[in-house]
């Protein structure tokens, strides 16, 4: 089941760390999806575990690449996946191009914060810019912190009532067709994601392993986007992407943090994705 629809990746590229664009490219290659990649920033390493990375901002490259691509008749992207964008200007440029583009679906991983806080380099102005991007999306994959920031809630807990209220607030602020997939939700001995199906909260989880697994969220978002690009239903895409991410984490659960900072071994996840998308 190979997709003939092309997919565009827009997120940062870490030269060392095996996350973000690097993970997404691996997923798209495994799924046989033709893709384009617009790195928003190039970093010498990922941002954790190696000291402060050297960085080149590519906000000026994005419009130049888009202008060039518009001159290529058969270069049509059906799906857009965004990750860390790096600047409000990049966010604004994407909103402008999505509104005049022909994307069938826009998957936004609204990278804003974690553990109840904004990332240090971001401000509330970045949150406002991200809300504008979310308004153009078909699917978003926030964690609970990001869900709270987007909904304007001071604190969102993992209770069903809190999640539903915050998700419905984001949908009402964005567009009625938006699907919100909240990641990193603990339920007993499982971790997974919540989403709404016909107004009812659904949960998809796998066994929880303690630790910090760099790039797990990137792997999930890329897997989800790739599967949706292949016309899987959202519930089935969530199920497969959750299992793929779980397999990668399970395969790396005994690795030391010094090793994990170079990125997870995601070969088990890629093998599973390939198997799930093979012709029956």
Structural descriptors:
280 residues; alpha/beta; seven-stranded mixed sheet; three-stranded antiparallel sheet; 10 helices; 12 strands; 22% strand
Q: Provide the spatial order of strands within the biggest beta sheet.
A: 3-2-1-4-5-8-9
Gross morphology is globular
Task: Bin the strand percentage.
Answer: 15-25%
Query: How many beta-strand elements?
Result: 12
Enumerate the spans where pLDDT stays under 50 for 5 or more consecutive residues: none
Estimated structural class: alpha/beta
Termini, distance in Å? Answer: 8 Å
Average pLDDT, rounded to a whole number, is 94
Radius of gyration: 18 Å
Order of helices and strands: EHEEHEHEEEHEHHEEEEHHHH
Count of helix runs:
10
Largest sheet at a glance? 7 strands, mixed
Helix content: 40-55%
Task: Give the SSE layout.
Layout lengths: L5 E9 L5 H12 L3 E9 L11 E3 L3 H9 L7 E6 L5 H13 L4 E4 L4 E2 L2 E2 L5 H11 L4 E2 L3 H8 L8 H14 L5 E2 L1 E6 L2 E8 L2 E8 L8 H14 L4 H18 L5 H4 L6 H10 L4
Parallel strand pairs: 1-2, 1-4, 4-5, 5-8, 8-9
Antiparallel strand pairs: 2-3, 6-7, 10-11, 11-12
Helix pairs in contact: 1-7, 1-10, 3-4, 5-6, 7-8, 8-10
């Amino acid at each position: 089941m190979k997709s003939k629809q092309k997919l565009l990746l827009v997120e940062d590229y870490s030269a060392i760390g095996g996350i973000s664009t690097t993970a997404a490219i691996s997923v798209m290659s495994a799924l046989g999806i033709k893709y384009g990649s617009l790195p928003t920033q190039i970093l010498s390493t990922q941002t954790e575990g190696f000291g402060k990375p050297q960085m080149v901002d590519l906000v000026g490259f994005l419009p130049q690449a888009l202008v060039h691509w518009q001159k290529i008749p058969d270069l049509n992207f059906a799906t857009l996946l965004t990750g860390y964008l790096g600047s409000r200007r990049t966010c604004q440029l994407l909103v402008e191009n999505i509104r005049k583009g022909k994307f069938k679906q826009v998957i936004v991983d609204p990278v804003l914060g974690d553990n109840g806080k904004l990332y240090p380099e971001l401000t509330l102005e970045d949150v406002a810019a991200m809300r504008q991007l979310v308004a153009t999306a078909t699917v978003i994959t926030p964690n609970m912190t990001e869900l709270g920031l987007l909904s304007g809630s001071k604190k969102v807990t993992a209770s069903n009532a809190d999640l539903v209220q915050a998700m419905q607030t984001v949908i009402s602020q964005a567009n009625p067709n938006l699907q919100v997939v909240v990641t990193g939700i603990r339920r007993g001995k499982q971790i997974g994601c919540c989403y709404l199906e016909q107004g009812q909260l659904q949960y998809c989880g796998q066994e929880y392993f303690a630790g910090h697994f760099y790039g797990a969220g990137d792997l999930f978002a890329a897997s989800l986007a790739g599967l949706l690009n292949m016309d899987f239903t959202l519930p089935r895409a969530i199920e497969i992407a959750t299992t793929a991410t779980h397999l990668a984490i399970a395969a790396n659960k005994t690795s030391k943090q010094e090793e994990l900072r170079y990125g997870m071994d995601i070969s088990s996840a890629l093998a599973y994705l390939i198997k799930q998308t093979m012709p029956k």
